[in-house]
Amino acid sequence: MKIVLKIVVSILCMMMLTFNIQENVSAAEGGTKTTVDRYQYGDNYLTGKTAPNAIVAFVDWGVPSNWKSKYMHYAKADSNGNFKLFSWNISSGQTVGLDTYDQNGTKLSSNKVYVFKESFTSLDPIYDTSQELTGKTVKNTKVEVMKDGKVIASGTFNDAIQLKLPALNAGTFLTVKMTTGSNIDVYKKIVNPKKISLIPTTKWSKSVKGQTGIPYAKIVFKNQKSGDIIQSMTADGDGNFELSVDNNTIKALDQSEFQVMEPSYDNALYETTFRLRSTAPTIDPFTQLSTSVAGTATPKSMINILDGEGRVIGEGQTDANGVYEVPVSKLIGGDLITVKSFMADNPNETDQSQEDVQKVFVEEIDDSSDTINGISTFGDQAVVEVQTDSANNTIRAMSKLSSSITKKKYGPFAITPGKNFKLKTGKLMKGSKVTITLQSGKRKVALPAVTVKKVVTSPLLSSQVKVTNNKGKNDTVTIKGIKKQSVIKIFKQASGGKAIAQQTASSSNVTISLKQLGQTNGTLYISMKEPSLKESNRVSIRYQGEKSDVLKANQVKINNLKNKKDVITVSKIKKKDVIKVYSTNGKLLATSKPANSSSIKLYVKQVGAKSGKVYVTRSGDKMLESGKQAISFKGEPSAALKSNQIKIVNNKKKKDVVTISQLAKQDVVKIYHSSGKLIGKSTVSKGKAVKVTFKQLGAKGGKLYFTVTGKGMSESNKTVKKFQAEK
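The line above is the sequence of Bacterial Ig domain-containing protein; the predicted structure tokens follow.
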């Protein structure tokens, strides 16, 4: 039977119970029945019911070298007989033995536990450092994580599961319910420990201490061979522990088995061999630039730093975790440094380690170079960290803009001990703090931070520059907020080329006149050189084109139509011109697409029923919009007269009379002969009708044509009206 374990647990010691096992007692004599719940692949623990405070253990007959080793995992039931027995993934489809004992070591029962196959889902281990449930599932699966029967996190996933959990301590028992349609699976998961640590312990140590991340965890030290408990203790509410020891105890603990158990059911979640480390201090790499020597030694031990001639150049003490950092000065490259450690109450027993002072040289870092150059006798890699504070920028500081600190890493760069290195970072901002860390495997040393020296003028900000592209006169470039005697250069190119203008500032503001930049928009590139500094990088400044020429009135024609869109035709324009039409109150009525010929038509829903004005502009390609040109338009055609509005009386031997009724004030009526000649005209001044008299329309009958023009409107279509012959 193959057991897959993801935490290395020594089989020889996990089963060493604190009671004496009576192997020959039968289950029937015990009279106790142990029942188990469903157990499937992916579960981290088995649940069930047995006698109060009984011991349950998985059986593994795969290691015959020690008869006790058949017990792989064990746990203690609570006072009600409920148990949760920890395990890692046991292969599905097999049967595992489970034995139950009482506190006296008498076997109470034996069970067979079948390992069911998992369903659609696979879940990853949960750790106290990640606080997240991850895994794989199928489409539309609802995931619910429960603690003590209450849902603490839930979500629905289609493939990858990534569910945030609340902060959970190692040793927390969880159930995960997976619902896919009508299928429901429940997995039993435990939060695994990754926060377990032991403070380095030597034969001089006064205590053994560390942390588990499991509140009130049980800490046990066992003899590797006999399984007897040497020392035990309970961690505090934060999972921290400390065991005071004397010389005899510390010796007895060396090479013992160190176990961490969760407090509810005594499941061992972590196990390793406890080993005393050397009393010789460790020394972190350091160089002649270092201002301290650091490393680890016995907690609370005294530290002396000696130079190559045996002189004490630094004194200090390790902290409660065994870490020291002792200030030193004037280290010499290549000198042999000795770090001596001893306990304050026994200064005669010492131990020491030695380390060469590594030689390192780094050239001055300034803002003109894109590489950091140097040489070091230590390390095969280098990492550069640059911390930049935007407040270092003079312009930002002057403008009182808020500052922000950013950190950026470059590398790792491969270097060779004893050979020159070049670390390419690109140009760095002046005032930035640069820290170089040299690495060799897991050992590394950070060189003291250095500040990037300013040798290059900072580039201008676009907000400092204003370009005015004038029409018909010189263009200007105005620059504000600069130092006196700064030299400004203006280019047409981003790099290379000859400056089209250059001027030295006599004050903090300077205006440079240029003959003509051109009608269309474009880009200038401007550099600045402050006194005693190098020329800055060029900053690109976009400028607008000149104003387009105003349209002439005779270029625009407006056709004010009735019951359909009005048409505005603009002629004699250039390709790519854009036309805009505005109302008298400034509202944009229409915008054309760039013209592809010399004329263009715009369609407006309604310019107005009556005559009026609109304003039309032109924007040439890459140019500003022109001024507005006022264009008058006629009103829409008036409604044509109806025949019943017209009455013609053709009199004999006296004047003929034409009457037009149902009119509005100021309506103009025109009467035309069939030949098209205007023969009569009248304006309504009073009432709603007009009369027009004619000397003679003719003895015979005929036709007349009538139009009406309303106020602010165009002339209507003609209405024809027949008249009778004289009687």
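Note on the example: The chain has four helices and 59 strands. Helices lie at 11-14, 27-30, 247-253, 394-398.
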